[in-house]
């Protein structure tokens, strides 16, 4: 099981490093919700919006944003913006294991 967790987290960190625009969109779309007065929302919704936006704006049919990354991005957002901790409801996830979200944010 630990190898699967390590593999999941290694894949997320690699995807995140290779695709900084996804993180930029995640932050931008999350702040759009916050600025509209939302106190809580679904990270999965934000990921699905990113998937929609990238489908419209790229010709690369191979580019995909895995919705399994939503817990990772939610935790990364909370680490980067601790004043909004709790904006995303967090359930136990593979993202809790081994991934250093503080390091991923550059904090």
How much helicity do the residues have? 55-70%
Shape: globular
Element-by-element helix/strand order? HHHHH
The end-to-end span amounts to 29 Å
Number of continuous helical runs: 5
Uncertain spans: none
Biggest sheet, in brief?
none
Verbal overview:
The protein is mainly alpha-helical and 107 residues long. It has one domain. The protein is 60% helix and 0% strand. The chain is built from 5 helices and no strands. The chain has helices at residues 2-18, 20-35, 43-57, 70-80, 101-105. The longest helix has 17 residues, at 2-18. The radius of gyration is 14 Å and the shape is globular. The model has no long low-confidence stretch (mean pLDDT 83).
Please tag this protein with its features.
107 residues; 60% helix; globular
Question: What would you say about this model in short?
Answer:
The protein is an all-alpha fold and 107 residues long. It has 5 helices and no strands.
List the helices and strands and how they pair.
Blueprint: H1 2-18, H2 20-35, H3 43-57, H4 70-80, H5 101-105
Helix pairs in contact: 2-3, 3-4
């Amino acid at each position: 099981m630990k190898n699967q967790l390590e593999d999941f987290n290694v894949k997320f960190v690699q995807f995140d490093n290779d695709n900084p625009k996804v993180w930029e969109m995640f932050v931008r779309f999350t702040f759009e919700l916050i600025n509209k007065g939302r106190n809580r929302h679904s990270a999965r919704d934000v990921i699905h919006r990113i998937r929609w936006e990238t489908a419209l704006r790229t010709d690369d049919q191979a580019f995909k944003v895995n919705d399994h990354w939503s817990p990772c991005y939610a935790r990364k957002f909370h680490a980067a913006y601790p004043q909004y901790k709790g904006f995303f409801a967090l359930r136990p996830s593979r993202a809790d294991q081994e991934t250093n979200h503080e390091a991923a944010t550059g904090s």
